[in-house]
Structure formats: C-alpha cells, structure tokens
Amino acid sequence: MSAEPHYTLYHPKWYRPRVSVWWWLQNRAYTGFVLRELTSVFVAFFAMVCLWQLRALTQGPEAYGQFLARLRTPLFLALDTLAFLFVLFHAITWFNLAPKAMVLRLRGKRVPDGVIVGLNYAIWLVLSGAVAFVLLRGGW
Amino acid sequence: MVRRITPLLWLLFSAGGTIAALLFPVHLFLAGLAFPLGWLEAPRYEFLQRLVMHPLTRLYLFVLISLPLFHWAHRFRYTLYDGLQLKHLTELIAVLCYGAALLGTTMTVYLLWNIP
User: What is the enclosing helix (H) or strand (E) of B38?
Assistant: First the structure.
C-alpha cells in the first residue's frame, strides 16, 4: 500500500450509489436467495445441538436427562421448529440445484436434470428411513 | 492463506451441505420435535451409549457434526459480506467463521476420542 493517493486517468471517481442493507426485501427472488443463505445459521445451530447431546451422553445418565429436559422447554421447541423449516428449505434447494453443480455423463450423453434431482430425493428418503429405523428401535 | 486453500473450503462447503441436506431434517425432526413432544418413543440412554461405542457410529457423528459446521462457515462468511456489506472486514470474518468450525470439530473429536 502506498501513501500517495492513487489516481486513474479519466476515472476520477467511480459512481457507486449506496445500497440499503435490506436490498433483498424488494424482490421475491432476492428474498429467497437471502433466506437460502440464512439456512446455514440453522445448520450450525443443529450441529451444535448434536455436539451438546454427544457431550451429555458422555457425561452420564443424569447429564443426558438434563439435556432432554432442556429440549422440552418452549424456547428449544420453538427454535427447533424454526430450524427444521430452514433445514428443510436447505435440503430442497440443495437437491434442486444438484444437476447444476454436477453434470453427469453416461455413454457420452448428459444425464437429464430430472434424473439427478430424483436420485437425490431417493437417497434422502432411504437415509432418513435408515436413521429413523435405528433410533426408533432404541425406544423399546 | 485463505486464498490458497479456497478449493478445499468449497469442497468442505459442498460436502457439508450434502450431509446437512440428507441427514439433518430427519435428525432434527426426531430429536427436536418428535421425541421431546412425545410423538415417538425416544431411544433410551443405555441404547445410545452402546451405539456410540461402535467405531462406525463415531465416524458417522464426526461427519454429521464437523462437515456441516464448515458448510456454515463458508456460506455464512459470504452472507455477511453480501448481506451486511462488510467487505472491509473480509479477513476477520473468514478467521472467525472457519475458526469456529475448527473449534467445533476439535471438540467433537475430543469427545468421540474419549468415549471408553
């Protein structure tokens, strides 16, 4: 960095109007974009809940009971409901964008977008079923 | 330094995003709503304790917690730049976001490692 101010010939100053912090509320597509970006906050929230559960689990039955009691409070039920909606939004937008992120070719032909999206949803269904199967078996 | 490992950060972002998309909805629905509200029978402590003893479960939990944290770090970093127009704080935001993800990963590894 030089101390001298840097001048560009014929460009004394760029014209850059200030944009409001709320620019994304004026257009539905922009709002959707920012909401999609915000899903990451809820992803991190639930990752931390998982970490917290793991810690409670390693500390013994009493600590684990306290963890479960905390999850039953209205605050956590509200947060978890909100987080569930955002995580669902993340999953749906993620799967729908998958064909744009990875282009698969079979025998030189591009696999249609619908097939890739469908495959993602199928894997989602199978994995969700498997997780539910393992965890629900533990209740008996 | 951040610029040099950018491809790795994008890889962690997409791997974490996929894990979060595939596995978080079901885990969040069960642990956050169905079990606390009594819609479904929650797994017992002894069952879960036996489950986390298994090395495969530990690997699963490591992937389940760590990768989505890096997904958050990467996406949230850009949310802060664009959404709040904090372009002048680029370096600080990057250090805080990836640092938090790294801290969470370290805690996860520590806990998983110390399970008897």
Answer: none
